[in-house]
C-alpha cells in the first residue's frame, strides 16, 4: 500500500470516479460509504448522485492531503467485504476505478488496497475512453456496521502540544489513510464544541491521549480522558497513552490508572507508533467481521486456522491477523514449519 499520492486528481478524473460510484450505489449507500471512510459529516443531499460526489471530491481535494482523503474513500468502495457473495460485482467496479487510477500510476488490488504500479497513461483520453458505466449485476445493498464507530483515532491533547505532537501525529496517520478526529481538521466555524467532541469520542475506535507536563490539571483534556475511561468496555482496548517529555515513572505517579496500560513515547518511537496504529485498525476491522466471513476476506488466515506454529506452538485462531505468513505471536515464518497440534 502506498503512503500518499504526489499530485492532485484532475477534474476529468474526479468526474469519471463520481459517475462510476453514482451509477452503482444509492444515495443512502453513498452516505454509508463516506461514514465508513471516516467522514460522518458527509451525506447525500438528495440531488444527482454523481454531481454530489463530484462536488464532494472537489471539496475534499482542497483539504490537507486531499487526494489521499479521496483514496481512503475509494478503498472503502473497493473493499471486498462490501461484496460478500458477489465477487463479480467487486471485480467490475474495481476494474472501472482502476481505469482512472492507472493515469496516476496507482491501482486497487484484490484486497481493496491502493498500491503503486509502474505503468502510467495519458490522462487526456479519460472521458473519451469511458463514457457511460454499465450496471453491475446483482448489486449488493450496503452492509450496516455492527458498531457505530466511525473514526479510527481521537487525539486528546492540550494546545501547548498541538504544534509539537498532535498535528504531526494527525498528519502521519492521515498520510497512511487512517481516519483521525483532530480538532483542527474537524471543527469548523459555528460548531458546538461540546456536541462535536462528544461525537468524536463516542465514534472513535481508539483515543490517543498525549500526556505531558502541560496536560496535568487541564480541565478540558482531562474530561476527555475521563470520557474515554467511561466509554471503555471491560476487556476492551481503547485508551492509547502517548508520552511527550514525560517518563514512564512520571506517568505512573500522575495517572495511576494508566500505569497498567502500555504507553509509547513521542517522537522516540515514531515507527512503532505508526506500525501499532495500523495493526490496531486491522484488528478492529476483523472484530467487526463475522468469523464465517474472515476466511473469505483474509486467505492467509484460512490457510493456517487450526494449525500451530512450529516455533512457539501457538495455534492460529479465526480472529488472528496473519501478515506475510508470520506467526501472530512470535513472527516465525509459518510456511517453513507448521504443525497440526498446539495450544
Description:
The protein folds into three domains: 11-129; 151-286, Rossmann fold; 291-343, no CATH class. It has a five-stranded parallel beta sheet, with helices on both faces. 43% of the residues lie in helices and 10% in strands. The protein has helices at 11-24, 27-36, 49-62, 66-77, 87-101, 126-129, 162-175, 183-186, 193-202, 219-231, 248-254, 270-287, 291-297, 299-304; strands spanning 106-108, 114-116, 151-156, 180-181, 204-211, 239-244, 264-266, 308-309, 338-339. It is built from 14 helices and nine strands. The chain is α/β, with parallel strands linked by helices. The two termini are 34 Å apart.
Please tag this protein with its features:
343 residues, 3 domains, five-stranded parallel beta sheet, two-stranded antiparallel sheet, 14 helices
Helix and strand topology:
Layout (H helix, E strand, L loop, with lengths): L10 H14 L2 H10 L12 H14 L3 H12 L9 H15 L4 E3 L5 E3 L9 H4 L21 E6 L5 H14 L4 E2 L1 H4 L6 H10 L1 E8 L7 H13 L7 E6 L3 H7 L9 E3 L3 H18 L3 H7 L1 H6 L3 E2 L28 E2 L4
Parallel strand pairs: 3-4, 3-5, 5-6, 6-7
Antiparallel strand pairs: 1-2, 8-9
In short:
The chain folds into 3 domains: 11-129; 151-286, Rossmann fold (3-Layer(aba) Sandwich), CATH 3.40.50; 291-343, no CATH class.
Amino acid at each position: 500500500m502506498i503512503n500518499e499520492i504526489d499530485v492532485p486528481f484532475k477534474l476529468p478524473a474526479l468526474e469519471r470516479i463520481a459517475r462510476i460510484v453514482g451509477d452503482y450505489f444509492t444515495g443512502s449507500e453513498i452516505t454509508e460509504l463516506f461514514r465508513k471512510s471516516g467522514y460522518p459529516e458527509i451525506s447525500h443531499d438528495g440531488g444527482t448522485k454523481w454531481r454530489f460526489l463530484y462536488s464532494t471530491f472537489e471539496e475534499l481535494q482542497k483539504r490537507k492531503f486531499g487526494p489521499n482523503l479521496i483514496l481512503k474513500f475509494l478503498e472503502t468502495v473497493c473493499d471486498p467485504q462490501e461484496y460478500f457473495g458477489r465477487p463479480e460485482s467487486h471485480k467490475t467496479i474495481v476494474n472501472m476505478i482502476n481505469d482512472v487510477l492507472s493515469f496516476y500510476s496507482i491501482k486497487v488490488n484484490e484486497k481493496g488496497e491502493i498500491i503503486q504500479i509502474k505503468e502510467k497513461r495519458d490522462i487526456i483520453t479519460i472521458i473519451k475512453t469511458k463514457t457511460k458505466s454499465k450496471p453491475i449485476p446483482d448489486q449488493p445493498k450496503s452492509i450496516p456496521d455492527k458498531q457505530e464507530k466511525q473514526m479510527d483515532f481521537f487525539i486528546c491533547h492540550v494546545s501547548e502540544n498541538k504544534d509539537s505532537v498532535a498535528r504531526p501525529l494527525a498528519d502521519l496517520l492521515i498520510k497512511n489513510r487512517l481516519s483521525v478526529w483532530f480538532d483542527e481538521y474537524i471543527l469548523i466555524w459555528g460548531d458546538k464544541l461540546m456536541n462535536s467532541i462528544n461525537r468524536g469520542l463516542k465514534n472513535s475506535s481508539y483515543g490517543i491521549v498525549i500526556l505531558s507536563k502541560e496536560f496535568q490539571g487541564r480541565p478540558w483534556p482531562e474530561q476527555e480522558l475521563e470520557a474515554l475511561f467511561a466509554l471503555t468496555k471491560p476487556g476492551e482496548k481503547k485508551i492509547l497513552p502517548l508520552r511527550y517529555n514525560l517518563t514512564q515513572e512520571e506517568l505512573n505517579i500522575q495517572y495511576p490508572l494508566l500505569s497498567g496500560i502500555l504507553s509509547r513515547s513521542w517522537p522516540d518511537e515514531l515507527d512503532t507508533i505508526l506500525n501499532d496504529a495500523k495493526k490496531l485498525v486491522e484488528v478492529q476491522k476483523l472484530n467487526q467481521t463475522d468469523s464465517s466471513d474472515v476466511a473469505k476476506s483474509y486467505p492467509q488466515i484460512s490457510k493456517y486456522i487450526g494449525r500451530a506454529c512450529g516455533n512457539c506452538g501457538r495455534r492460529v485462531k479465526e480472529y488472528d491477523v496473519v501478515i506475510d505468513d508470520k506467526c501472530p505471536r512470535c513472527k516465525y515464518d509459518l510456511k517453513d514449519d507448521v504443525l497440526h497440534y498446539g495450544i
